[in-house]
Design goal:
Helix content: under 10%
Largest sheet: 5 strands, antiparallel
Distance between the termini: 40 Å
CATH topology: Methylamine Dehydrogenase, Chain H
CATH architecture: 7 Propeller
CATH superfamily: YVTN repeat-like/Quinoprotein amine dehydrogenase
Shape: globular
Structural class: mainly beta
Length: about 375
Amino acid sequence: MKTLSRALLPAAFLTVLTVFASCGGSSGGGAAAPAVIGFAYIANQTSGSVSAYSIASNGALAPVAGSPFAAGFGPNSVSVDAAGRFAYVVNTTLATVSAYKIAFGTGALVDVPGQQFVAGTNPLSISVDPQGRFAYVANFTSPGNVSAYTIASGTGVLTAVAGPFPAGTNPIAIAVDPTGRYVYVANFGSAGVSAFTIVAGTGALSPIAGSFLAGADSDAIAVDPLGRFVYVANFGDANVSAFAIDSGGALTAVTNSPFPARSHPQSVTVDASGRFAYVANNGDNSISAYTIDQTSGALAPVAGSPFGAGMSPTSVSVEPSGRFAYVANFGDGSISAYAIDPGTGALAALAGLPVGATASPVSIATTGVH
C-alpha cells in the first residue's frame, strides 16, 4: 500500500485536535496557578502518536500525564466529539481509525475497546458531527470516497455505515456543518468540494447536486460555527475560496472569491464567534488572518497579517473561548501559540512548544471545558 507523507502531500490531513478541560488549582502558599480551560491533541505523523496538552487561562500549554499516547502508523488527523468524551485519529498507512476515551479532568487518552477501526485506502481526515452521533473519514486514494460510522454514545465504539460514499478525486479534508445536517469534502485532485446531506438516524450520506469548484489542489476545509459559510484553502493557487451555504446545503461562491493567502496554504479554521478566519501557509512559515463579513462571508486581511509561525505550518486551531490560537509546525516539530485580539483578530505570539517538542505534527484541534 502506498504511504503518504505529510511532507509531500498538503495538509488536509490536518483536521483536528481538541481541547477538553478541567479546573486549575493554586500552588501551596503562592499565587494561584492559571486555570485549565481545555486540552489540545496533536497527531504526530512520524512517531505514530498523539500528544496531549492542557491549555491554561493564559494560553500556556503543559503536557498531560502519559502523553504522548500511541496511535497507528502515520496518524494524520484528529477530531474530538463536541462533548469532549472521545477522540479519533486516522492512520494513513494502516488505513484505520484509532479511538480513545478522554479521561475526565485529566485529558489523558484511554483506548476504546476494539481501538483500531477499518477505514478506506489512505484516509487523511476525520470529522465528528456536533451531536457526537457520527464520524466521517476522507479516503484519498482513487476511487476517492468517504467512510461513515455511528458512534456508540457510552463507549465511543465505531460501527461502519453502509458505504463508502463517492466523493471527488483525491478527497483530502472533511468537515461537518454545525447543524449536523451537511458534510463537505475538499478534493485535492479535482479542485472542488463534494457536498452531502446526512440522512437522519443512519448517518448515511446523500449527495447534494451541483458543481462547487474551488482552486488548484484544494486541501483544507472549514465551516463557520453558524453554518453560513464554507472556506477552502487552495494549496496550488495560494488562496482561499469562500462559499455561502443555502437552505439545502448547496454552495454558492462568495463575491470576489477566492481571497489571497500566502504560499501553499494547508489549513483553514474559523473562530467560535464566526468573525475571524486563520490559514496556515506551509510555503512561507506564516499565518494569514482575516475578518469575515457577517453578511456576505467575504474575507478581509487583518492588520499585520500574515503573522510568523514555525517551519512548515500545517494545521491551525482556535480554542473555543476565542482567546488563543495554536499552530502545528511540521518542519521543526514545534507548536506556535498566539493571543487573539478580540476586537481585530490580530495575533500576538506567546511562548509555545519549542522546536522538536513533537514529531512531525500534522493536525491540531481544540475544545473547551465540559
